[in-house]
Amino acid sequence: MIKHIGSFVAQPVFTVAAIRQIEKRLFAAERDPFAVMQRAAQMLFKHIAINWPDSQHFVIVVGGGNNGGDGLLLARLLKQAELNVLVLDCATTERRGDALKAFDLALADGVDIEPFDALRVCVGSVVVDGVLGIGARLPLDDVLCSVVDWINRAKRAGASVMAIDLPTGVDADTGYAQAYVAADITLSMVQPKIGHVLGVGSIASGRLVNESLGSNALLSAMSEEDRSSLAVASFSEQIDWFDVAQLAKHKPCPRFADSHKGRYGHVAVFGGDHGYGGAAIMASEAAAKSGAGTVALMTRGEHVAASLVRNPNVMAFDLAHERAMSLGIRKDTVVVLGPGLGREEWGEALFHRVMALSLPLVLDADGLFWLAQLSDASLPEGSVITPHLGEAARLLGWRIDDINRSPIEASAALAKQYACVVVLKGLASVIANPQGQVYIAGKSEPVLSKGGSGDVLSGMLGATLAYYKTPLEAALMAVSWHNYAAGEMAGKRGVHRAQPYDVLEYLD
Ligand SMILES: NC(=O)C1=CN([C@@H]2O[C@H](COP(=O)(O)OP(=O)(O)OC[C@H]3O[C@@H](n4cnc5c(N)ncnc54)[C@H](OP(=O)(O)O)[C@@H]3O)[C@@H](O)[C@H]2O)[C@@H](O)CC1
Ligand SMILES: Nc1ncnc2c1ncn2[C@@H]1O[C@H](COP(=O)(O)OP(=O)(O)O)[C@@H](O)[C@H]1O
Ligand SMILES: [K+]
User: Fold this and answer.
1) Ligand 2 lining (C-beta closer than 6 Å)
2) Which is it for strands 126-130 and 160-164: parallel, antiparallel or unpaired?
3) Read out DSSP for 55-86?
């Protein structure tokens, strides 16, 4: 499916259910399953030595499960290296199995283990979160909330925080979190989880490092059929994370030396009711600067001059003009419908008029408002919709919080409902198609939290859709480039001064 851009920038992320299955196989392959936890501790020790070679004082906060077990074995290694280590124990249930074995070993080695006390002053320059990993039941109760708060306070007071496997409080399957540890580094065990790269989890994890503990070899030795039996999710065989940092090597719409403008397609942006001309102008500018061959802005007459002054390369048509449609539309047109469309009669009429053209659509903003009013809508083949959480909630009839808690299910449901590719926008965005393929792309870029960022994305997506023709690929490219360019822009111009359309200066 990913034909043009190569799949090497995508890597699978897993659900807890899938990790548990890998775990079983990993244990079966070992003579002593406890060796896996010991390896985990060695990896933690290694990454501590790499990141904090001069630190002498460590506090390891542990829970009663295997996440705490990893922490206790790490404490033992730190003690053996003659470093100062204190374990704060917040387990509320009796330890069993490997976690108990780890506790006994740490105790036998003279590791200082004391009950967690929220009033205690942190004595470590590095705090390790070994409270909960993939076995967490959420939401956290008050006691665990105070543990999380204690770790975050230690960080604010200057300590560095390393999370074992997953920051405590983050839902491993969705990245959803209420109270959570904000880690500087997370050392993921076995394979990366969805919660590391999606939602609040993508921020809470800090810098993500994975240690496979032998599972890479195990996964690559598995047959295709066997791998798909891992049941990553009921609706999808594999969920991939798209590393936008790799994208610098791939332009959004690469150009060929022997090409002409017709190769890169035509984008027509419809929108810009009274007061909202900027949204449509930004979208058309974004389509042009992302590499579309030709771009037409189809809008109210009052916005035409503004667009021509700003972007003379974009044709601008007054929709009140009777020949506007025939002049602005070609047979290979990709339509961007929604930026500044408005919720008045003008927008409604335009929505229906454009839908009737049956051209591949990028449907965004108020285009999605009008779509939600239809009881039975089918979109032209090759279309993409780009809802944010609120728009997705309206389209599905879910609450916003439900979308937030289940972003992958929500995007998959929308992809089925409208038989199109969906971009559920967020800190990281979820891209899904009706065949059950799911990608996560992007990372937190607060510079994008400004009105107009979505309009720019929809224009970029118009250009990539005209170029690639395959909507999934087009969506991946546009979302990733939007996010990547935002990172570059924030670094060079600062998060306050930079405006949504400035992103377009960082596409090359
Ligand atoms: N996968 C692998 O191959 C490898 C995994 N490894 C490591 O194991 C970790 C998974 O370990 P895990 O399964 O023991 O789960 P974990 O996250 O420690 O939590 C379970 C414990 O916490 C408790 N508990 C849960 N929620 C709670 C709450 N809200 N409030 C209070 N208590 C709560 C729960 O209590 P219970 O349910 O028994 O009442 C139980 O005691 C994984 O993240 C990684 O670090 C590595 O060793 C290497 C190989
Ligand atoms: N903090 C953030 N981190 C990463 N991306 C963000 C952030 N805030 C917003 N975005 C992105 O910016 C865009 C905002 O879209 P939208 O909410 O439709 O904005 P608007 O309607 O104002 O144009 C989306 O692509 C979203 O993923
Ligand atoms: K943890």
Assistant:
1) 365, 388, 425-427, 429, 442, 444-446, 448-449, 451-455, 457, 482
2) parallel
3) --EEEEEE-SSHHHHHHHHHHHHHHHTT-EEE
Query: What's the pLDDT at 299?
Result: 98
pLDDT, residue 411, reads: 96
Residues of the chain with pLDDT under 70: 1-8, 230-237, 247-249
If one counts every other C-beta atom within 10 angstroms of the C-beta of residue 436, the result is 16
The string of DSSP codes covering 193-233 is: BHHHHSHHHHHHT-EEEEE-TTHHHHHHHS-HHHHHTT-SB
- pLDDT score recorded for residue 1: 45
CA atoms in the 13 A half-sphere facing the CB of 192: 25
Q: Which of 14, 25, 90, 134 to mutate to test the pocket of ligand 1 (most atoms within 8 A of CB)?
A: 134
The amino acid that residue 39 corresponds to is R
The Å distance, Cα 449 to ligand 2 centre, comes to 5
Whether this model's ipTM surpasses 0.90 comes out as yes
CB count within 10 Å of CB 71 equals 29
Domains and CATH numbers, the chain: 12-233 (3.40.50.10260), 262-506 (3.40.1190.20)
What span, in angstroms and rounded, lies between the C-alpha atoms of 306 and 311?
8
Instruction: Show the DSSP H helices in 243-303 as ranges.
Output: 277-289
pLDDT at 248: 65
